[in-house]
Structure formats: C-alpha cells, structure tokens
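Notes to self after the Tuesday call (sharing in case useful).
The group wants a holo model before anyone commits to mutagenesis around the pocket. I volunteered. Ligand is iron/sulfur cluster. Logging inputs and output together so the record is complete.
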Amino acid sequence: MKEQGIQLKNISGNNLEQCLKCSICTVYCPVSAVSPEYPGPKHSGPDQERYRLKDTKFFDETLKMCLNCKRCEVACPSGVRIADIIQSARIEHSKKRPALRDVMLANTDFVGTMANIVAPVVNVTLGLKPVKAVLHGVMGVDKHRTFPAYSSQKFETWYKKFAAAKQDSFKHHVSYFHGCYVNYNYPQLGKDLVKVMNAIGYGVHLLEKEQCCGVALIANGLSKQATRQGNNNMRAIRKSYKEQNRMVLTTSSTCTFTMRDEYKHVLKIENEDVREGISLATRYLYRLVESGKVKLAFRKDFKIRTAYHSACHMEKMGWVVYSTELMKMIPGLELIMLDSQCCGIAGTYGFKKENYERSQKIGAGLFDQIKSLNPDCVSTDCETCKWQIEMSTGYDVINPISILADAIDVEETMRLNNV
Ligand code: SF4
Ligand code: SF4
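Result:
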C-alpha cells in the first residue's frame, strides 16, 4: 500500500483503514480496564500501526501487555483485526530476545516430555515454597502461581496401549488433535473424548505427527519455531482431512483458534483448504445430534449444577453456543451462564512476575461471581482458564466433553446408534 509517497510494508493483513475511531474496543479491553498505563487497543493497534509502518522506532514494548484475548476484535463494529495488528507488530519489530523463562514456558512439548518422566517429583517440587521463591527471583515466574500437575502417563501412551487397536472397527472416523495439556497434564480429557465418540460409533485416531499448536511460542516471541510447528501440524491435518476424509477434533478452544485463525493471520501459514476440517469436539457433536445423525442417552442418576465460563477465544470463534447447547441436552444438568469476561491468565501471560497482579485484577469479577453462585463446578473449553479459575476460586473446572462423558449412558447410547 502507498501513503504520502512512502512504500509501506503490510504486515498485518492490514485493515487499519477500516478504523472508525469510535474507541469501543478500548471499553472492552480487559487490560485497559485495570492498567491505565496500557495505551489500549485503538492506540496500540490501528493508530500506532500507521506510524510503525513508516518507521519501526514507533514500536512500543507496551504492546506486550496485550493478552491477545481478541475481545477488542469481537467488539469492533468495523471488523478491524486489532489484536492481529498488535501481535504482528510484536513479531515484526520487537528487538528483545525471549528470556530463558519465556523459552521454557513456551516449549510445552519439551518441558512436558521431561516432566512426564518424573511427574510425581516435579509436581511436589514445583509446589515447594523455596522452589517457588527461586523461580520468582531468578526466572521471573510469579511465586503465587500454581503449576498444573503433570501426569505420569502421557495420553499418547495410554491411547497406544488401550485404545488404538479397536478404533478401526468403528463405522465412522475422526482424528484428534489432543494438544499439550491433554498429553502431558490431563489425559483424562482425551480418554473422555474417546469414550463419547466410541459410544456413538466413531473411531478416534491420532494425527500422524502432532506438535504443540504454538500459541505459547507466538506469545513469547518465538514465531519462527511456531511457524515450523504450525507447518508440521498443517501437513498432518491436511492428510487427515483431505486424504483420509477425517475431521480433526479438538478439546482446547485455544489450540483450535490458533490453528484456524492465528496460523493464517499472524504466522502467514496457508490453511484455508483445511480450516473447516478443524473443529472443537462440542461443535461437531452438537451438529451430529441436531441433524439427527446421532443420538445420546443419559444416566438417570446424573445431577450437576455447573457455571459455564466463556473463554475469550470461544467468544472470538462464536462457538460458546455449541458447548452450552450440548450440555443443555443433559437432563440432570443445571447450566448457569457466567458473565462474559476474561479470566486474566492468557496462557503463559499470568505466570510472569510482571503480569501476575494485573492478571488477577482482570479475573477478579469472574472469581467473585463464581463464589457468589456456588456451583458444583465450573465448566469451560480452555485449559488455561481452568488453571486460573481453579487456583483463584478453589472450584473444580471441567471441560464440557468430560461432563458429557460422565453423563452419558454408554450402553444405551451404543444401542441407539447401532454400535
Ligand atoms: S472498535 Fe474498531 S473501529 Fe472502533 S476504534 Fe476500535 S478498531 Fe477502530
Ligand atoms: S487483544 Fe485483548 S488485551 Fe489485547 S488489545 Fe485487544 S482486548 Fe486488549
């Protein structure tokens, strides 16, 4: 694009000219609400981008205060990709090299593989006060933060041992992008997905080679590594969707959003041909049930009162409705919708010493609402929201797929679907 005779480099797919200067985005920005020193989405995004495109000296490190929650984009009446502009500017212009802490937090595959080998020791060690003090003082990981526990058996190991052999016997087939959290921390969620899909007659297969989606790498300034991993994931997803005719299901809203939208908009990875082949499992299931292709039967003794938290990236995708409507099908489930607000963690953001207080301030309203409602549990589709809410409220946070897996009558569901 050309402006005042200067050739500008378009780094953000750049629709900054669409900005109407209405400032609605700033009203919806959770960081602006608690940190007056943050310039806000309008200024950090389209306003400053004009200057940055002319001269990189206008790049401002306050951009790293952005959570990349996309709430500004959801609110914008003119469709400006504000957060994409901010993330692209960080990738393009930031001169600061990622610190050791950021490299460690971002490399979830490497850290998870190491931690799984000695999980009980790692879990105890990370909870010790002297260790937290060292992490805080030396590494810059806030001492108040609780780390998610590591599992001693990876999901992939469980799958190969106990599930893989029978998946070919089903009539229908899907692939599963399990993500790092399921693989290294909480394999139960993956087992729950296999249980539900098998009950309706769908075999679940792992991708030929899955790597971390890269969301933490992008956030921590490791975009080259994120692009490499993204390209590998796209190859595996393409094979599943286009060659094997298998949808790729996920149970993490953030992994889903990253692969569907951030790959193209932020990392410039071409994914248009397979984007529709990637779906959150709740969306896929809801559509199957709604179309009458699949039937679900539920346990008569299942009772739960759950409060649903809409993760930021679920709001951005517009997919909250699939998870909540699916849960509403469970007769014994009482669903309370929590106000739509950011929990403040934003992946690795809330782990960092410089962000911890802000992170907790952002989530404070949500934590208070949960405590005042006193549900049996909270439900959400994002694992990092789960960590933040569990640590800050003491309530268990359960993925809708795990609630569904607990609620279904497996034998009756199989009978209804001729499995
Ligand atoms: S909401 Fe959209 S149009 Fe309004 S100031 Fe923000 S970016 Fe510009
Ligand atoms: S992505 Fe979130 S934190 Fe960043 S500017 Fe937009 S609303 Fe604010």
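Two things stood out.
The CA atoms of residues 307 and 373 lie 8 Å apart.
Residues 19-25, 41-42, 46, 75-76, 78, 80, 82 surround iron/sulfur cluster (ligand 1) (CB under 6 Å).
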